[in-house]
Amino acid sequence: MATVCALSAAPLTPRAVAADTPPYSETYRPQFHFTPEKNWMNDPNGLVYYEGEYHLFYQYNPNGNSWGDMSWGHAVSEDLVHWKELPLALSHDDEEMVFSGSAVVDRDNTTGFGTKENPAMVAIYTSHAKDTGIQAQSLAYSTDRGRTWTKYQGNPVLDIGSREFRDPKVQWYAPTKSWLMTVSLSTEHKVRFYSSKNLKDWELRSEFGPAGATGGVWECPDLFPLAVDGDENNIKWVLVVNINPGGIAGGSAAQYFVGDFDGKKFTADDRGTYTPPTGTVTQDFEGTDFGAWATTGTAFGDGPAAGALAGQQTVDGFDGKGLANSFHSGDGTTGTLTSPEFTVDSSYLNFKVGGGRHPHEPGTLLEQGPPPAGTVLADFEGGSYGGWTTTGEAFGSAPAAGTLPHQQEVSGFLGGGLVNSYLDGDATTGTLTSPEFTVDKEHINFLIGGGNHPTGYADPTAMELVVDGEVVRSATGKDAEVLDWASWDVGDLAGRQARIRIVDDNTGGWGHLNVDHIMLSDTKAQPVSRETSVNLIVDGQVVRSATGANSETLDWASFDLRPYAGRRAKIQLVDLNSAGWGHILADRFTEADTAAKSVVQRADWADYGKDYYAAVSWEDAPDGKRYMVGWMNNWDYSGAVPTSPWRGAQSVPREMALRTVDGRIRLISKPVDGLESLRQPHAVSASGVAVRDTSEPLIGPAAEGGALDIEATFSLEDADRFGLKVRTGANGEETVIGYDTTTEELYVDRTRSGAVDFNSTFPGVQTAPLKAENGKVELRILVDWSSVEVFGGSGEAVITDQLFPDPASQGVQVFAENGTVKLDKAVVWHLDSAHD
């Protein structure tokens, strides 16, 4: 899991749940999204409608709040809004974990598992063999409406010997009177189609892919027909392919293709070839040297590369004969390549980028300087722990001298000693506690590395600051053996007595922690960057940055230069990473009037937010409707979201349709109609409001709340950006839902949405292309205790984002930036809880 050193200040998240807290009333507990009462949940599975009930099975850990022991949980609903959690449906066992899949009603009893009078419900799931890691497709069946299940004795029914073959979506295909399976070859970026007469014997029909976005594994495919613009004589097929990472907003996301299916083969509609915008090329790396560009370090060599370097996989996607490539002597080298300064006089800088995915993180330094001045509490030199006390075996009797047996190389510590709890591997546990000391400086700085298992979650690997027996600050590693600076602001604890406690309570992967050089200082220590990036620098600050996708194929990227018009700037390629994928590729820097679009930006997405993954649809829904739901989370940080005793939620189910938008067939979605049953009777509204260069309350206290359904229509005037802010509160807390007229994009900014510091990829801005229609922008916004779902236009632009605001932050505001907007109408409904 890629994350920064996760720092948290009091109160620690997840907030401790009081023993008398009623279920479904905990901090952050969704009020109208499905969550299990307790424990971990991820992908929705087995979506089928039968005898008045929508079945929602889901990936579930019956034994804890983190991923593991994968089984199928189960819930049912009559309206896709009010859910009843049922007992565990399919359990892991000694041989297998029960990975994702689907369910069908075998009405013709093709399996013999039921009868025509009482057909079996059949689950088709990926059986993940615990001993070999082989993924094969297996069956289980139920003859009592999904309440109890029997695994088929003949499992698996489809095994190709692969460890990356999963997530079967099965449906009845009437024209051939046979079952159709859509299943993914995850690392090959392919979907396979199989057919069967009895769900037991399968025949390969065809493959689709690679296509579209391929920056991560392909998972949880789905295939279904929809009428275009409501015309039943114009049917197209939609192939949904979920991808992780490499999604439109980073991490995991739901991609789709529109095309035709003939019973055997899916053919995506031809989108044509992409032609990037024309412009002025400022550096194409076609010369024998870098010209006026300057290098530091050795990673970039003395001049452009002609493609792949020694030891490197094939490099492609660059233009001409040369490119910048920092793989000289492998990933272990570092360096920079910097352009001369130039005056910004174009709207966009377009370029091609590839290589490692190691983004620039604000506040990091390009190189390690000496530690800030201060008082050293412990440097772990001298061969002993001094007055520190240990429990357990993980820390041994004295500091480590560096890397321990069977450990990857440990680096970044100072001197000859450090704390390293990898003694005898990850299986050992223990604590290491300092003597008491007085907090007499503004900061506690320290070097930390190792596993990412924060305090407040199961089995932490963490460094904690303890005052009066309470943990008031904590930090964890980032699943890397390199130590880097982290810092706690402790100004509010001046004069208090405290202890440092280093905890290793984890016996799994990355179940250890590395710590060194703990000190009190009035200066905050800044971590060293590990980025592989292309940066735009203005006034010494990185103002735009791009990174690779862990791929040797270069793709287009673009920097919006408009805010920096007339300013002096330079381009800097940075390789400060010496681990896997520790290199950057770049080519063809071009000044242009419009932005180039990457493959990912040109792909189609069911949702443009951070938190909509493994999206699949219900089979056999009444009236031919197609309803879809996604896991409202992201693999970038899913294990660290601050919720307890559950972790994981499903999105609001959505009704799907195909509509021609701006000349192209798009998948559109809207919340299921049943959600309106939660609306309280008296909506509040505002109309005809002109807003200029300000942010002001929408309506007032009557519109405020933590669970809301908002419909709003704006008329464009001359404001650059406008929209609504929800969950606003003290200290600038807000989630911004806006429209940018200069880029024609809907956006959600959750940078200041509440708890955001548990993972570096969580705060940020998500955008979705959206053209105004007749000078108007329409929004439907669902606000829950820990999420927003924003539907723009006809539902072609959707952004789903988790947020973790203070429960007291319930304000709603309307805003305009750099001009005026007219709010034609806004209606706000308070939503009742869907829990009984």
From TrEMBL:
The keyword Hydrolase applies. GO terms for biological process: sucrose catabolic process. SUPFAM superfamilies: Arabinanase/levansucrase/invertase (SSF75005), Concanavalin A-like lectins/glucanases (SSF49899). GO terms for cellular component: cytoplasm. Residues 675-830 form the Glycosyl hydrolase family 32 C-terminal domain. GO terms for molecular function: sucrose alpha-glucosidase activity. InterPro entries: ConA-like_dom_sf, Glyco_hydro_32, Glyco_hydro_32_AS, Glyco_hydro_32_C, Glyco_hydro_32_N, Glyco_hydro_beta-prop_sf. It holds the Pfam family Glyco_hydro_32N. Residues 33-291, 597-671 form the Glycosyl hydrolase family 32 N-terminal domain. Gene3D superfamilies: Exo-inulinase, domain 1, Glycosyl hydrolase domain, family 43. Coiled coil: none annotated. Belongs to the glycosyl hydrolase 32 family. PANTHER family: EXOINULINASE INUD (AFU_ORTHOLOGUE AFUA_5G00480). This is Glycosyl hydrolase family 32.
